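Feature request, filed as a ticket because there's no other form

It would be nice if the structure record came with a short human-readable summary line next to the tokens. Right now we just get the raw output. Example of a typical job, pasted below so the devs can see what we mean:
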Amino acid sequence: MTTTRPAPTTGQGFKGNDRLLTGMVLGVLTFWMFAGTVGTVARSILTDINGAPIDEVARPLISLDQMNLGVSITALFSGLFIVFMGGLADRVGRVRIALVGNALGILGSLLIILASGGAALPLLLAGRAVQGLSAACIMPATMALVKAYWDGAARQRAVSMWSIGSWGGSGVAALFGGFVASAFNWRVIFYLAIAVSVASIALMWGTPESRAERGAHAGFDVVGLVIFMIAVLALMVVLIFGRQLGWASPTTLVLAAVAVVGGVAFFFYERRRVSPFVDFGLFRNTTFTGATISNFVLNGTIGMLIVSQQMLQIARPELFDPWKAGLLTIGYAVAIIGFIRVGEKLLRRFGPRKPMLWGSMIVALSCVLLMPTNILIGPYIVLAVIAYSLFGVGLAFYATPSTDAALSNLPPAEAGAGAGIYKMASSLGSAIGAALSLTIFSSFLGGGATIVGELLHTQGIQSNAAVRQAGLITFLFNLVLALIAIISILMTIPKGREYSAE
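Raw output as currently delivered:
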């Protein structure tokens, strides 16, 4: 097995163009912008499918916990399959897998559109899972095409456009989804997603194929993937449905045991593999380890954004529909797009450690600003707008330096495997973080928590005190995640390492 970086076996003379780049960016948007709207419009989906607000339905077609799974499952499936699909794209063709990903995106959106009646839950969950599988195809395949078909300054521009599709798409997802759900209907989001996927296919169609050299990679570790999937899915079911099933119930305990035993079995099985699904040997590099851990937990803070949007809609429905709640996030969209290149410049000036720390600290500050849910709605809106903007700035500062720290410290032969693990950490961090935040929020919301009532006086309307306190506790949890990221960076990322201005 060769350890050199594989080159494309076809299309060597082809140069990337704006047609192909636009098609790839549109494909990336179907996940980050369109599939990412569900956290904001979840209450609208529940109300529409159940025929009334979830609190007014005795036997809903889709429960709150089931909807929480629907929010998280897309990022979960993306994380589970992104390494596998990246390897498959190297073998059978990156253009082909990107087109398959768009076709899966169309299928996933169609299933979600059809979700209604008795089949609403399976159609919704299947559609969201297929959307995750679609993203697992599109993201590694299109990024590999950028590396294969662009060079020099043109490649830097292509990477920037790809990043705007991902980070920019996630930044405007809440705003876009809230507007469409309020002005039209939440299903229109996914009609538009189908149109974007069709446009992506049309623009990419006919592109010369790119794949890795034949024999450049060993066979994929399917057994490792299956063990990993079983363990992670068991964990997600416990996190999301543990409250509903009962934390001490036999079902919950069995699933928790499956997650633990599966995780241990996965670790020891992978250590014996020549070509493992996850190469644990990479984690001997402390810089890669720290960057990956901080990437995992900082991506988990996306739950803060999802819960804060839902909290506002539940606590003050007369003031906030999905559009008005999403409108508060406009600073997040502007900041994350506007400051991505700033993160790159900070990396060149200071090395990765300082901008990673600054970014994580800014995310922690945004959590702190969202925590005083006991105050009146007017001042809280001001804090929320500032918090969302800072959240975008923090992630933008962190993104490029973290990626550089993770991958530039690995030998060239291990860069591909490291990139797969790093991207998987992003998706799984988002999925697990969102699931934990939604579970914490739902648990205290359903129990009418007054745990902070003795410490903080709830101003204004008292009927929504439990909702506001549930939000506070969730934001405190996300603050802990940001602090873990900071600790990971301090312990593992070396100081210095300035970059030249070239």
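Something like this underneath would help us a lot:
Residues 282-502 form a domain with the Growth Hormone; Chain: A; fold (CATH 1.20.1250.20).
Residues 1-9, 498-502 have pLDDT under 50 and may be disordered.
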